[in-house]
Amino acid sequence: MPSRKFTFLALLSITAALMACHAAAAPKVGEPAPRFELTDTAGNTHSLSDFKDRKVVLEWTNHDCPFVQKHYSSGNMQDQQRLATGEHDAVWLTIISSKPGAQGHVSPERADELTRTRNAAPTAVLIDESGDVGRAYAAQVTPHMYIIDESGTLVYMGGIDSNPSADPADIPSSTQYVVTALEDMQAGHAVADPVTRPYGCTIKY
Amino acid sequence: MMGITMHKLLPILAALLLASPWLPAQAQRSGEIQRDHVVVELVSEVEAVRPGQPFRVGLLIRHEPDWHTYWRNPGDSGLETRFSWTLPEGFEAGDIQWPYPERHEIEHLVNYGYSGEILLPVEITPPDALSDERKAGISLKADWLVCKIECIPGSAELALELPVIDPDGDANHPIPESGFAARFARADTRRPESVDWQARFSTDGGQMSVQVQGADPVGIESLQFFPAHATLVEHAAEPFFALDGDTLQISQPLSPYFIRPPEALQFLLVEPDSARAWALTAQPGTLQSAGPVSGSIGAGHPLYLLLAMALAGGVLLNLMPCVFPVLSLKAISLVSSSLEHPRGHALAYTAGVMLSFAALAGLLLALRAGGEAIGWGFQLQSPWFVGVLIYLLFAMGLSLSGVFEFGTRWMGLGQHLSESEGLRGSFFTGVLATLVASPCTAPFMGTALGLAVMLPAPQAMGVFLALGLGLALPLAAIGLWPPLARILPRPGPWMDTFKQFMAFPLYLTVVWLIWVLARQTGPDGVGALLAGLVALAFALWLGGHPAIRRRTAAAAHAATALALIVALAALVAGTRRDGETPMDVNAPWEPFSTARLAEINADPDIGAFVNMTADWCVTCLVNERVALDTETVRRAMRESGTVYLKGDWTRRDPAITRYLQRFGRNGVPLYVFYPAADAGNPVVLPQILTPATVASALNRN
Question: What is the ipTM of this complex?
Fold first, then answer.
């Protein structure tokens, strides 16, 4: 029977098409963003559903990470926080998923102090010690950025900008993806670069 | 002056030479620079520069233990090392000649990079004329990221100066090598060999798949795959390798940050054990498959290709043991003189096949649209269908053996049929061919057709009809094109012998189906069915024997009817499902249940291996025999603390159907491994297993 070989090849190639499905369940742009509930530095609980009908920006951070420092020392991140929460009326949630003892893990007091000393302007800083929310979003690095639209749909995920470097001097010549995405949304069209390469320090889950 | 002898001059000349600004002793290196966790230095392979003659410099990086920097594609995180050159006018720097990287697993991510000491060479091409220059200053600004678990960006500006020799550029002797030449030679042993093996890649179906032809020297035991593009694949997911002849296939899930495929895929294949590495480029394209339906059925797939492959698969079906006996006889009768209009018969037969395929596919699509989770081969999950098929094939076998003639007439094989009867016969031969082909299509092409079902309904129907047309094609061609018929042997007395011989493949098919039924119903059911077969044989023998019928007409009719009723009752009894098949306590596996799987996954010390199988799935059985039931795999299961769960889809089982769907499947086999410590990231194994594939998957734990 000539079927052995062709069966083999057919099944082999089909396998290829089917194996994709085991990939970690990363959120997908265009689909509902994973729901979550986290406590902020003041002890208040926030869940994604609290911000229905508003844009939500998620920023994964680790203040000791040089790539995070690139965007805070230059004021780029703070500017984007003010732009998003001001002009775009968005909610900006800074999330810390470092496990206790790992780089970037901070007490609520320390987190508030960082916000103050860096003159940052997030809506809230959320502590995700268990890393559950970080994993639900498949957040890999700091900074790792996500934007969720008014209907709860994920519309952007990826890097903070287009130049994966730690040098603040590179910022002016880079595309600031969160800003351009918010502008696209305001203008009523689809986000031009909905998925970009995230770069930074690995999140210490 | 004349009094000064040569021997007095020599030391002066020597001193002059040593002090010469264009031959510094350290020209070939920049000097080491210490940065966080690395020491870097710019070094040269040569001692001097000659116009027009390319030479190499390189960045030597010495990492502290456990720290590393990155390859051109850093993997899931990290950053590639970047060079920015400042060179004299007319000099040009090439790209980094990246040594092949190591695979670093950090937390839940995988990175590609270097540890220990590594040299990143770059070729520099000076201009053809350098008559005014006596030295060439070469400056490099290097940026890198050095990581252990934390990452620290690093940067250094390094410079060296090489003297220019033979400024007129006509010398032939080689440029003198520097003390670092051996270090460059060592770097070259880690430089991938560029090969022009033909390679294609596709990003259909959430999967990056690449197929390489002529990859003979490559063994897949320890092979590593490094794509050069950062956001193409999910690096933390182990790639799958399969080698079939000289075709190597590699698959890895796409990265969640995948946006669009590269214009050409650049990648490395590395055998770290033998320190061999190959650099390849793959063009986008459709992966080759000899099968009836290509593996990657995606939106971007041309429909004509799917149809062509379905057609080819259909033609192959003619050779299946359950189909060939019927069709070979039909072919002979078609060309025999008794049939006046072979064309009409060919068309009637084709119509029979196509309508049956349309009906089956329509039923399948309608059931799917109605939310039923079924796949092609679903017919065989019904013991009823299997029972009827057994009766049918057995009756045909008896007819071919000459026990009775009824079947031959029904199949249009008779020699003395009226034209209309003959045409109807041909039509039903088509129906019959489709029916008897189904035990063969399901296991051999079930998965492929299951995928076809996922296409939009009109296209799916198209694929099924193409398969039907393929099945009908050889016979139709014989009828429609007389010259073809002349190739076939003339009908004659030999046909009887041939007919009787052809009964045996049918009996074998019957045996296989009875075995399938045995697994579905249990020994009581099979007993009833076998008794039914005897009754059927008796009825057919009695009914098909004119001599007996004539002599004792009423009694014979009654007996025939009675035997048929017994056969029917046996069929009903035989195909009723018994209770659960008792579990074999000695089996190395446990029956699959979602609860048991959840229990295992909750325990970080034990992993799970799930095998979804069905008795009518030949691939599944072959895999169990050659791979899963071997000592290699049993040992790997024991050593890795893995519990073997087996789900049996021989009968429809909603829990298993739902499980299959979670992996985007609508058919078996499916093999999934849940590592003990990382049950959240199950690994799907290929559908063709070898003991080594399974064992290596288990040991990855």
Answer: 0.74
